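Entry 14. Ran structure prediction on the chain below.
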Amino acid sequence: MAIYHCSVKVISRASGRSAVAAAAYRSGERLTDERLGKCHDYTRKSDIEHREIMAPDRTPDWMLDRSSLWNGVEAAEKRKDAQLAREVEISLPRELDAEARCALVDSYVREQFVSQGMIADVSLHRGHSADGQEQPHAHVMLTMRDLTGEGFGKKNRDWNAAERLEGWRAAWADHANRALERAGCDERIDHRSLKDQREAARERGDAEKADDLDREPLGKVPLAAVAMERKGAPTDRGDEQRAVQARNQERRELTQQFRDLSARIAETMRGLGEKAKDMAQGLRDRLSAAWGSQAEDRGAAERIAEATAKRVERDRDTPEPGSAADRIASRMGKAGKPHDQAAHDRQRQRDRDRDRER
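Output, structure tokens:
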């Protein structure tokens, strides 16, 4: 898979380095450091895929020659701890062929460095990674002084700004991703740290992506260790990287197992939810039926109560046959006219007394 690597560092005399020697190694050429009178011959290097000097339009012709360019840089620097050149090292996507890789580096370097007035000495290497696979990469050596006529002027301090570095790193990811898209590849790279990528994924609610990014970063294996690993001799740095890869693989497997288990649990819960819905609906139907029956019973009871109340009211006005009230009503009816009230009251009292004696 495509990986992100874009490092920026300075080639300095303080660390005992030479711009001429660095250029000879990266280009696979034979160059002589005129200041030290030392020849650097790397013509036997076989992994050089492409080499080129890219410069602004106003660059004098003598700077387009690699030996003249870097000996001129050395001559312009007087301090024993002078910063000689800036180097950008970038990993190129394995998914791209040699032509696409060359076009990618060309567009990136011209946009980010040459357009700002730097001269860029570009070398593309095939290279190999610690896992034994091919790992194409590019070395870009950059001048650090402004161009003035036929020579170098002052150091451009603006090129040292931290935001410049961050911009170069982000721009490389953009260029590489566009190249991968043009090539029909789904792989993408990101200049941010794994931690920043995880936080960004969580902020946008992409938990699965955040889980995928929850891994240990692979440490860089020095070229000497890579060479020994290729010869079959394990190294400590190689062992460390293999251990990290094993832990990351285990983490991926456990994460996938957790996702599968979560999916099964969710599916089971959905099934239980459907069953629960069916059970709940059945219970509601039964309750509705029960409440409906009770409602009918209540209605019948109310109708019975109403009829009873009406009968009581009616009986209160119409005495029951054989009762004292019925006998009084009969006597009153036979007379055809009412008795006086006092006589009527006395008769009712006598009837009540007689009923109590019975």
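Residues 332-339 have pLDDT under 50 and may be disordered. Will compare against last week's run tomorrow.
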